[in-house]
Specification:
Length: about 450
Amino acid sequence: MNKEEAKGWRAFLLVLSMAVLWRPVAAGADELSDLKRELQDQKARSAELENRINQLEARQRLEQRSLNDEIDAVEAKTEQTGDTPKGLPDNLKWLEKIKVSGDFRYRYEYTDLEDQPTRNRNRIRARLMVSAIVNGEWDLVFRMATGETDIIDDTIIADPVSTNQTLGEFGSRKDFWLDLGYFDYHPAGIEGLNVLGGKIKNPFLMVGKNQLMWDSDLNPEGVGVTYSMPFGESVTVGLSGGGFWLNEESSGADTSLWGIQAHARTDLSDSDYALAGAGWYDYGNLQGLEDEFGIGFGNTIDPDTGAWVYDYDIFELLAEYGTQIGKVPVSIFGTWVKNCAAGNGEDTGWLVGATAGKAKNPGSYQFGYDYRDVERDAVLAAWNDSDFNAGRTGGEGHVLRFAYQAFKNVQFALTYFHSEITDTDPELDYRRLQADVKLKF
């Protein structure tokens, strides 16, 4: 091997050695790059997984909040309407057609009639009502209520215009009576029509809830009809009528009441309205009927026979105007009645009043006032306001009311009566104060 060949072999061996030594270094660099890429991919996958977890948690929170809102809405609707939630077992489906409601009132009452001792009473009223849907056009309503009783000629009767029970008599049991029991037919083909039969709520409108002619506790017995229909966008016409039985006779004609009332309401704006109407009420076979229950207190009664001297055919006019002052609803109302069958000149009654506010939501309040003058035979004393003027006709005076809604379904109220009994000689002052706590469900 010459010198040139030796140089070539040395160069070849040197290159081969460098190649052998460089290969592990290059292999280590590739593995490190792969490891770095794998770590970056894993980090990206972890970030994507965390993002998905956050999205799922947010969606779950949103669905839970929506579910809670739905539950709150169902509970609120159930509290307001008394409806039973749907989805009951088949053997309990009938509960979906039943609504149970009721109320309780505790009252302190002070009365002062001139020339008589003052009286302090604690009284309660308890009522429990069950209403049922028979089908799409028929309903049934039953209500039981407290009420004091009298025994007259071996006949037990409850006051037709009061559901109060006076506490006392050494804690004796209190009477509970059928206060309402009627059907309500509302045909789908005649919107706004209701036909009621049984012991029903009074179908006649009393503007301002006044009690000049009817006590608010009065529930007449017979058949009543109410119908409401719109005329255009702002006018609504209402009609009410009925035939009711006052006294059933085993022989001879029964004592009855046939009445009809019509009114129209015009909405003047979103907060203003005006209402006016008239009614006619014809009592049949009342004149000459013996007042065996002592309920004609105030009307002209024959001292020899104990019978009503006059018939009662009553014409009524009524009106009401409502508006809003600031955020306070205000109404002014009045009614006037005349007994066209009385022959003694004591045949007219009238009332004017106003209300401000509405005791409905917690913290809200309502004021009310009316002045009335009801002559001796203007209305049937058995059915007019049982609190005003010692529960009789033949008087005039003031009524002031205040109500405060302290909590949901809990209300405090004060009512003060100040009147003069005008059909006595001399005239007598009458005062009455009522302090109420009212609860309902």
